[in-house]
Structures are given as C-alpha cells and as structure tokens.
Amino acid sequence: MKLHIHSLLLTPLLAFGFSATTASAFELKAEKVADGVHALIGPTTARTYENHGLNANFGVIDTAEGTVLIDSGASVEGAKLLERQAVVLTGKPVRWVINTGVQDHRWLGNGYFRSKGVEVIALTRTVESQQKYGLAQLDSLRPVLKERLDGTEPLSASRKIDGDVARLQLGGRNIELHYFADAHFPGDVVAWLPAERIAFSGDHVYVDRVLGILPQSNAETWLLAFNAMKALQPVLIVPGHGSVANLAKAQADTGDYLAFIVSGVKALAEDMAGVDEAVTRLGNAPQFARLANFDELHRGNVSRAYLRIEAEQ
Ligand SMILES: [Zn+2]
After folding, report:
1. Residue 229: which residues within 8 A CB-CB, separation 6 or more?
2. 33 alpha carbon – ligand 1 mean position (Å)
3. How far does the centroid of ligand 1 lie from the alpha carbon of residue 39, in Å?
4. CA 11 / ligand 1 centre spacing (Å)
5. What does the alpha-carbon distance between residue 71 and residue 121 come to, in Å, rounded to a whole number?
6. How far is C-alpha 161 from the chain's CA centre?
C-alpha cells in the first residue's frame, strides 16, 4: 500500500518532467532516401543554442551489423541527439561514424562516439584539416552553445585512410569516400553509396539556401569538386544543407551559383578591378535571390572569392 501511494505521487511528476523535456527537444527531420538509408535534415538557419549547431544535414545507414552515422554533430550534446535519432530509425546502436568534412558540425561530436568505442572514419587529409581549424571552431561555438559545448573536444577519426578514395564495406554495405578538391573547407569529401547511387555530399552542396564562401573556402576548386561529384551521376543528393535533391536542383542552387561567382571574380581580378568593384558588379544577382540567406551572405561570398583569386594570381 505504501509503495502504491508512492508511485501515484511520483507518476505525475515524472510525466511532467518527461513532457517538458521532449517539448523543448530539438529534432532533425528524418527522410528515408533508400532502403535502410535516411537523411536527417537540419534547419537552413544559422547555428543557435536551440539547434545545437545542427543547422546541417546528416546520414543514417542501417547495416546488418549496426548503424553508420554520417557526420557527428558540433558537440557532445549534438552527437547524443544524432545518436538518439539514428537508433530510433534503425533500432541498432551506432557502430561507425564517417566524417565528410571539416566544418564544426561534421566532426566535433567525434569525441563522444570515440569514448563509446565507436569507430570514427575519415580520410587522413580531412583529419589534417580538422586539426588545423578545431580550436578556432570551438572558440566560435562557445558563445552560441554556451554550457551545451561543455566536454566537447576536437577529436579526429580513430581510423584514418590515406589517399583520395576510400572504399569501405561496413556491415555489408558499400560506402565510398571521395575527395575531389578543396571545397567549402580543405579536405571535404563526398560519401557515396554506389549501389543506391546516393551522394551524401557534405558541404559540397547547399540547396534552398545560398552557400557560404568562408576564408577557408576555395570557390574555384569547389566548383571543380562539384563537377567531379556530378560525374558519379547520383540519383539523389543529400546536401550538406537544405532538402534532399536531384542533380538538376543541386546544379541550380550550388553549381550555377559557384560558376557565377568564379567566372565573375576571375574576369574582374584579371582586370584588377578591386574587391569593392567586384562586390558592386556581382553583388546584384537577382537570379539567386530566391535562395535563403542571400541578402546576408552573397556580397561577403563575392568579396572572399575575389580576394582569394586575386591573391593566387
Ligand atoms: Zn556545413
């Protein structure tokens, strides 16, 4: 009787605690793209405390021997959140993590998975680039994620693979990593499923929103990498940011945009027009104004692409 009363008293409290947690919990949108292959689609907005820096897309692949997670999130907390969603989709623990790139949300969750003995896989060139930028990335995440960044360490992959292509067999699934050229960051790769013809493009492709050319980005080689990815002839692309797309949509939102920037800044740099003139001449691009974040990012993209090409001439 005493026990019974006790549990009656506790139940409402537990129920309240549970619903309060789930109501405030951030979730990515899960989308099945093939048998046992899922995309986790994050918001196309900026990083926020609420979204754990998971303003990007991730992949979940079910195999006979466990789950493969493509990219580990921007923090320990973000990694746990991705793990929860992955396990709901497959019913199997995460056994492997693959890193497609160097931006924070691609890999800063590695430490959480490594602490659980999960194998984290990346190309050596990706790891080298991650190590170069990791501490600076943590510094810029700190004011956004605050205490949610606690315990996050810039730990790279436990299995590093030399060369430009890795052909993995994980739990009976073929998964390839392809490095084509330095893109959004040096060392970014595409994760390619040859049987399903699906590309998890990482930050090579942005759909629905304008891509970000950062000081670390090389727009010219990024365009080469994008074209090399196209040669794989994917039937579906899970982009780094935005909705799952076919090649035509990826071309319109990333390929055409990069081509516009690269051809524009190259011609102006050859004429030594100067960065201000480049921003004036290329800053007005109504054909891309439909892309989210255009007003915030486009002129800065022109300016950084111009300065890089000018410096390399
Ligand atoms: Zn990204």
Report:
1. 178, 180, 190, 199, 201, 204, 205
2. 20
3. 15
4. 42
5. 10
6. 20
Give all domains of the chain, ordered by start, each with its CATH number.
25-245 (3.60.15.10)
CA of 101 to the centre of ligand 1 (A): 8
Cα-atom radius of gyration of the chain, to the nearest Å?
21
Centroid of ligand 1 to alpha carbon of 56 (angstroms): 6
Rounded to 10°, the helix 256-270/219-230 angle is 140
Whole-number Å distance, alpha carbon 108 to ligand 1 midpoint, is: 12
Q: How far are the Cα atoms of 82, 123, 177, 294 from residue 126, in angstroms, in the given order?
A: 21, 5, 11, 28
Measured in whole angstroms, how far is the alpha carbon of residue 190 from the centre of its chain?
11
CA–centroid distance, 72 to ligand 1, in Å, is 12
Query: Is the torsion defined by CA of 237, 241, 243, 249 positive or negative?
Result: negative
Q: How many CB atoms lie within 10 A of CB 62?
A: 18
**Cα–Cα distances in angstroms (integers) from residue 184 to residues 148, 174, 244, 296, in the given order:** 26, 25, 19, 18
pLDDT for 9 beyond 90: no
**In angstroms, rounded to a whole number, what is the distance separating the alpha carbons of residues 250 and 194?**
19
Distance 74 CA to ligand 1 centre (A): 10
* Tokens read off for 159: 């299995």
Ligand 1 centroid–CA 255 distance in Å is 16
Question: pLDDT tens-digit profile of 110-165?
Answer: 999 999 999 999 999 999 999 999 999 999 999 999 999 999 999 999 999 999 99
Q: Answer for the pair 154, 139: CB distance below 8 angstroms, yes or no.
A: no
Residue 311 to residue 189: CA distance in whole angstroms? 25
pTM greater than the 0.85 cutoff: yes
Measure Cα distances from 109 to 10, 14, 165, 253, 311 in Å: 35, 29, 23, 28, 34
